[in-house]
User: Fold this.
Amino acid sequence: MEKIKVASLFCGCGGMDLGVIGGFSYLGKEYVENPFEIVYAVDNDEYCTKIYNDNFRHKCIVKDVRDIVVDDMPQFDMLIGGFPCQSFSISAQNPPRLGYKDERGMLFFEMVKILRKRQPRFFVAENVKGILSANKGKAFPMIINEFMEAGYTVVHKLLLASDYGVPQKRERVIIVGFRNKEDFYKFHYPLKVKTSERKVLGNVIMEECNHDESLFFSEKAVAGMLAVREKMNKGRVMSLTEPCNTISAHLAKVSLNSTDPVFMVGDRYRRFSSREAARIQSFPDSFIFDSVSQNRQYKAIGNAVPPVMMWHIAKSLQFCIKSSYPETNAIDSKPVTVCNPVQLSLF
Ligand SMILES: C[S@@+](CC[C@H](N)C(=O)[O-])C[C@H]1O[C@@H](n2cnc3c(N)ncnc32)[C@H](O)[C@@H]1O
Assistant:
């Protein structure tokens, strides 16, 4: 089968891209290669692109997406992008959430511009849960409307990464657009994996990290945190028997005085190593991060789309490409929200 060609905007270190192409192994399971190939990838951060280029055959360009000359892009069938989410995030209260009024919140328009001009068969956009309520609930329908105006039938769903075998309670909105109605009718969001296939933090913690002094918080930091813990909900110790709370780009500056997830070994508190953070995000151990500093690694990892979750989404898209539709996927009858024009009249 000829592969579907993919252009990737805001590719970061490549979590989304890895999930799309597949062909990796994670916690003993093979995530087989998918019939997709990345033909174009762009991010403006030279550090995450360095990681990207250490791991993919296709090389990513360091570029601001606003500088892309659309006619210069190669031919592609699918556009993907986790457009920057800081301005939509619930945690972005200081400064307040500006949503689409913030310069970074406007970057999805670059995806829209490319879709309008090139009309690929599909697109997949990813963002934080906060996008659904940003700007008092006005930003999201506006964004969906822009995608529809570009010529697409658009669906969206909030997915929980731990439902797909990722040891993390990360919730992300996945927007999928279809140029053809037939593809839209065939598409279903991926089914949750069986309970026996779900993963917890204990599956990814590395014993050798329990002996790495650099990962432990000092006694002074622990005493300071314990003094305010009850009141401030700090020092969020994760259970080994559950998926971890969401890890973010903030992990580079993790502190006991923040709400970042931490971990306890006996009576001592420690942060995750960057490899553990990568495992929490479902990157395979074969994925190379070490050509950049630890801080840059944490940032790129925390920003990524979990490859395993994305792999399941890519698998679902394949059902549109294949002529026959497998029975098994048809039982996911959870509501797929097609944007409703009534909702759009708010604008
Ligand atoms: C949420 S992260 C994407 C993560 C990526 N999809 C992954 O799975 O690894 C958003 C990315 O957008 C990039 N970015 C932000 N503004 C940009 C711009 N103007 N042009 C290009 N990339 C930009 C950031 O460097 C960051 O890597």
Remarks:
- The radius of gyration is 20 Å.
- Residues 10-16, 42-45, 48, 64-66, 82, 84-85, 107, 303-305 surround S-adenosylmethionine (CB under 6 Å).
